[in-house]
DNA sequence: TTGTATGCGTTATCAC
DNA sequence: GTGATAACGCATACAA
């Protein structure tokens, strides 16, 4: 059942601007201007040329256009891969963010070029913005690359980054108030009488670090102490989180509450708890982070800190567009919200 | 907290090939060849030039390269939007497919350009493959555009389409055996003694049509009759499905089983059933389609027909690459699997 | 308001 | 094995 064919039938007669110019009896420049609605051209001829091009099925060659004009109409969205082999893109948070970004970029008339970034390899910053291919870059997550991102910003790459505010930051970030988010989560558990609350996540990552800070603040406020052994480090993958939680349980760690750095982590943890015969929330109350679609469908439905991804995506896009224009590109701090369901 | 800056500091000294040529004491042609590992160049000079370029931080300008060579290293992934306002990309099935495609394309050394396609507007096929911007196109879903896609294929655009096999198809498709899938779903319900089984989906779309065919076949095989009023039409959105299901219940339609055209539809239906006081699976058994991550977390966990998206994504990518090369681009039929959980 | 001329940075073609 | 030269298709400074 072959459906192949050489590019032979119906040669798409690669029309160029000169063809339209001839058809219209004007010069190429006029066509070029008319097609981008330049006010230089009389409205009547503009209209005529547009119609002619339309009928002929001509579209401007974006590659040539972008070589000459140094504008591509494309924005690169980069996903830093912390650990080589994780298929990060399939992560629900990442997918949702990408979908919102794609929607917003389309709204703004930009195309989206998706790039997985192996941040191990040196020089990824340069590869990121191959000259001319895209007008700007959105990075989803800072990973451990604060310094490298700063360098990229200093090199003049229009940038917007999803993440946390850090000292000495030369690039605009969009992100939730992670400290507040962590605080909301832990305070909620404390209010429900939980005394020994575990934090589950990789606190070396900037966003998670802030969530952890908020968590400790809330514990202090509640008069609880944050035992260091109750910081259980895990990556963002569900199976990883499940394994780390299982280990913690097996090690005899005593706890009655969990603040997870993400919903996927929380759900992995609940799996491990369930496997170990601990009931949620009776024995252990669990709070997640993100409020992905899965959260409300989890067993039990997950209490979590919602991040406003749709708003975040809009802010990221508008920020990078501002940077491209050379306008002030300010950082944006989004308010997280505690969504109380059944798990805590 | 402004983090903006004009592109002034640290001018990235836009290095070009001529600079490397001068540095190496050779011509531009030699540099060009060396950097693409042409066997024409002596291994020693090749290595020397590569190192020089590396050190200088030079990368080939992909726009200029692609204007001249007519190869972009980019593949466009198009998502046809059936209904204008649905944010289709946020659909879990779509997001998962996109993530797998992005992973696979990256593996194959291609970049992914994401395009939402408004199929209402005429001429979308042409816009899809703006000359030069990408080497080929992957379409996720045929929508109602079989004829237009055929036209694109005839025009020589290298294509691969996720969808169903249709008569007179001039383009390669990758997709599940939807007829078999529908059959598996309905047969499972029949085996469990369900007699009045509703089909929930838009049977005008090719893939859904085939699932519906399989459903009817299974009913016939089980000696049941497929009453036309048990075909309840709905789009792919969860809220839409919930509303249609609620209407069907309110209208007094009698049924004890549901075959849904997707998991999202199934979950929407279960919501409506639950709201109407019908228990799943006791009163109504429900089978979904896709096996998205959400399915196993649904209430109750959803029995569904799994599609192998990861394999599908690989097939799509390899198919479009074959088409780009001018090789035979064959269609691929993936085997669906029934995953039995608690909902049926 | 429109046309003319030049060049964007690379690669293909042809010569050496 | 390497170099010179002319495109690739368009947009802009400048001239008219």
Structure, described:
Two copies of one chain form a homodimer. Chain A folds into three domains: 3-67, lambda repressor-like DNA-binding domains (434 Repressor (Amino-terminal Domain)); 74-176 and 309-332, Rossmann fold (3-Layer(aba) Sandwich), CATH 3.40.50.2300; 178-306, Response regulator (Rossmann fold). Chain A is 41% helix and 16% strand. Chain A is built from twelve helices and twelve strands. Chain A has a six-stranded parallel sheet with strand order 2-1-3-4-5-11, with helices on one face. In chain A, α2 packs across α3. The radius of gyration of chain A is 26 Å and the shape is elongated. The N and C termini of chain A lie far apart (55 Å). Chains A and B meet through α4, α5 and β2 of A and α4, α5 and β2 of B. β2 (111-118) of chain A pairs antiparallel with β2 (111-118) of chain B, so a sheet runs across the interface. Chain B binds a DNA duplex (16 and 16 nucleotides) through residues 16-18, 26-30, 32-33, 36, 40-42, 45, 60-70, 131-132.
Tags for this model:
434 Repressor (Amino-terminal Domain), DNA-binding, six-stranded parallel beta sheet, 12 helices, homodimer, alpha/beta, Rossmann fold
């Amino acid at each position: 059942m072959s459906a192949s064919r050489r590019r032979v039938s119906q040669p798409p007669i690669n029309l160029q601007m000169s063809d339209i110019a001839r058809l219209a009896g004007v010069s190429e420049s006029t066509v070029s201007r008319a097609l981008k609605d330049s006010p230089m051209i009389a409205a009547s001829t503009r209209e005529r040329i547009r119609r002619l091009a339309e009928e002929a099925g001509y579209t401007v060659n974006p590659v040539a256009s972008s070589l000459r004009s140094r504008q591509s109409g494309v924005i690169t969205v980069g996903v830093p891969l912390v650990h080589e082999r994780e298929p990060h893109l399939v992560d629900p948070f990442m997918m949702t963010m990408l979908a919102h970004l794609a929607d917003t970029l389309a709204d703004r008339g930009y195309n989206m070029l998706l790039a997985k970034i192996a941040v191990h390899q040196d020089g990824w910053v340069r590869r990121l913005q191959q000259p001319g291919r895209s007008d700007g870059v959105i990075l989803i997550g800072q990973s451990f690359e604060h310094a490298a991102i700063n360098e990229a910003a200093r090199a003049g790459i229009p940038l917007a980054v999803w993440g946390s505010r850090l000292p000495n930051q030369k690039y605009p970030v969009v992100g939730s108030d992670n400290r507040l988010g962590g605080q909301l989560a832990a305070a909620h558990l404390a209010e429900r009488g939980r005394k020994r609350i575990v934090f589950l996540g990789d606190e070396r990552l900037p966003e998670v670090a802030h969530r952890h800070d908020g968590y400790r603040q809330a514990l202090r406020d509640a008069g609880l102490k944050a035992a260091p052994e109750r910081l259980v480090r895990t990556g963002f993958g569900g199976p990883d989180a499940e394994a780390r939680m299982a280990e913690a349980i097996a090690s005899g760690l005593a706890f009655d509450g969990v603040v997870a750095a993400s919903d996927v982590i929380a759900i992995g943890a609940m799996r491990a708890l369930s496997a170990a015969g601990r009931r949620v929330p009776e024995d252990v109350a669990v709070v997640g982070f993100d409020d992905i679609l899965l959260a409300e469908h989890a067993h039990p439905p997950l209490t979590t800190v919602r991040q406003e991804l749709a708003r975040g995506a809009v802010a990221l896009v508008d920020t990078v567009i501002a940077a491209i224009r050379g306008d002030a590109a300010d950082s944006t701090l989004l308010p997280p919200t505690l969504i109380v369901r059944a798990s805590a």
